[in-house]
Known about the structure:
This protein is of the alpha+beta class. The protein folds into 5 domains: 4-277, Glycoside hydrolase 38, N terminal domain (7-stranded beta/alpha barrel, Alpha-Beta Barrel); 283-381 and 745-769, Glycoside hydrolase family 38, central domain (Substrate Binding Domain Of Dnak, Chain:A, Domain 2, Up-down Bundle), CATH 1.20.1270; 383-472, no CATH class; 511-535 and 577-736, Beta-galactosidase, Chain A, domain 5, CATH 2.70.98.30; 778-841, Immunoglobulin-like (Sandwich), CATH 2.60.40. Helix content is 22%, strand content 32%. Helix 1 packs across helix 2, helix 4 packs across helix 11 and helix 11 packs antiparallel against helix 12. The longest helix is centred in the middle third of the chain and has 33 residues, at 346-378. The termini are far apart. One of its GO terms (biological process) is oligosaccharide catabolic process.
Amino acid sequence: MKKRKVYVVPHSHWDREWYFSQEDSNVILSQNMNFLLDFLNEHEEFPSYVFDGQYSVMQDFLSKYPEKRELAERLIAGGRLKIGPWYTQCDTLLNQTESVIRNLLLGKMGADALGGSMSVGYLPDIFGQNAYLPSIFKRFGLNDAVLQRGLYNAQVEKDLNFIWAAPNGETVQANNLYFGYGPGKFLASDEEYVKHSLLPILDKLAAMTPENKPLLLPAGGDQVLVRTYFPQVVAELNAQDLPYEFVLSNYEEFMRTVKFDSAADKISGELIASQKSRIHNTIRSQRVDLKMLNSRVEEKIYQQLEPLSVLTEKLGGAYPQSWINDCLRELFDAHAHDSLGGCNSDETNLAIKNRLLKIERIADGYINILKKQIARGIGDNTVIAFNLLPKEITKTVKFVIFTAEKKLRLKNVEQVLIRQDYISGGKQVKVTVDGEREVEIPGYYRSEILATVKFDGFGYRTFELENGAPSVLTEKLSAEISNADYSVSFDKGNLVLTRLSDGAVKSNWFDFEDTIDAGDSYDYSPADGALPTFSGKFSLVKTTSSALTSTMLLSCELAGQEILTEIRLEKGSKGIKISHKIKNQQENHRVRVRFYGENQAGISYGDQGFSLQKRQNVNPHLATWREEGFVESPQAIYPLERFVVVPEATGVVSLYTKGLKEYEATADSLNLTLFRSVGLLGRDDLAWRPGRASGINNKVVETPDAQLLGDLCFDYAYQWAEKLDVAEQYHAAEAFASGQLTYQLQTLNSFEERLERFELPQPEAMKNLPGRLNLLTLSEKLFVSAFKKAEGTDDFVLRVFNPSDETVKLPDFPQVDLSEMLTEKRSVLTAKDFANLEIKL
Length: 841
């Protein structure tokens, strides 16, 4: 009888941080990696070792042990040690897809520089798979993926090897780690282990794999030390009368031996099933403070700093590429599996928060410098508005203006003064022959102005200041606000939204829900027998109105706590901006906002990657999940990248968020999770997650910081359209993003911007710049993921996508793959696809 081949892959899964700190991890790494490198160097019989598919751990190690670099390079180049292609193993449903791409870009670059990157998209432990990973892998030259979580048993019951397709149709060959990444962790050859542990696992894998294909047995675990005895164990197993032949190998070699049937049914899109492996679909609202901070940092890098740097270099300045890439590496440390999930110790979460704040400080500093250099190149007293999106757009933009005079306005633009403060000039210390002397500095006015600005494309506009009083934001007596699209009125506790295009009305438009959370840092859990608490009626605090913007401030009580809600309508905006403020004083609960509407279709759409993902409001396995052996209840609670869309009887409702990552759509409401408050890292036997605690299950780790006590603020936008138009949904997402910046070149205030008070050189080439500039305007049918400088060349890379079902024409530029190497040029972008354009501005 021919024996079935089993590829045994020795590996370490290396958590960057978790219930331990990154410092703990690196100290352990110093011991394990030194031992591993020396062992591999001395034992040629040990063919190869996989170090978790992430480059960052090797980078950290070599920063402390540079004398081991030559040995590491030799082992990596020789295929003995497998690192990359990731920088860090990130949870791909919690950040911008752009971060996933950059993580692979920097990881693959780093690993290749050390001798070679693993050519497999390795996903051993992340909580669900982004729909576009097959396409992203493909365009990095990775044709294979090995992953654990997110599949239904029925999808792989006939073959654990499958073709995985992205929404744009691109595919990779994939293998499902059905028993996770550790079934061979304690591989042994004794009779007890073989009979009761090894053979049952292999027999199950064999039953789910066609006879002409080998089996994969990952043999590792979290932070494990290399099993030096594996060659001997493999030889001893092969000497036994077993139906299997064991080969000590790696993932690349295994995938090369698997024969994939290209005509077989494909598994498509995102993988978020919770049948065999836990997905923790409510982890997306855990430590939401960190997720909102991360979202803000991502936006500042991808939508502000990078395109502003492109503009600066084109105008004669310098692109701070090394600074940006260092920020990205720090960011990807915060994106590592577990980290951004928030399922960590308080110590670790504090380190993540400080890491993100550090990145934000650097981004803010460079944004300040680059804005100032451009403004100085234009001339004195410049007031400038930047459009960092290469699209034509008209938008309400906020300016902060400092003047000695009280009356001021921007010339030739519609505007409203929303706030003005008089600021003391303070005192200046002057050094004289008689010693130091304090000199009183005259005061000045700080004014916040909203103005409607039309941009032609990627570039900037400048404005003159003139004496005069703009219209002001005034408090209204009436209980109604409106713009061209909506009217919001308040009558005796009833909040009414009217869509003016057709007169459709929503009464008692939204409220809040508070439920006890009996879960842990991984999962929300309803408390047995506890009923939700809903907010009481709203009370009107005040309304304000102007030509450009109107606001309504409301108050309500939820479970004994006050929530202040501001609703803002702006001229020309189809999105209603909403913010909530709450001083959280309660523990172990979850707060959601519920928007009412009849959802007859029973579906929702969450954006992910470069298109919308269609989801069912009720999982078909929900009624029988225990009988079917699900490890978690398949609740229809979903992730979103930037927005969610729900078709209703009266149109389509969308919510656009920045860091709020979790929603649930039901027959009569769209529920957006604001936050969870829970103080334990792990807990056994949850209502929706039976059995052991996730992560460490033999120690209670309390996380009081995760209760999120104190002031919390949430901002998002609501849109109510008459019909679903995918392009319009993405236009609204563009409008809600912060791709427009303003700046005033002035000498009155030196603290508004981060580095304003320091002396800075002016690049020699950045002089006599024009007062208005447009470098690039894309079709409104194309959307932008990134605009950056290429790695290693002087060109720029513009990543565009087409989320619609139509074909869109591409501009006539060369094209590159995700490694930023020239590739075949396409003239059109098909449905749900993306392209990387090489730009020479």
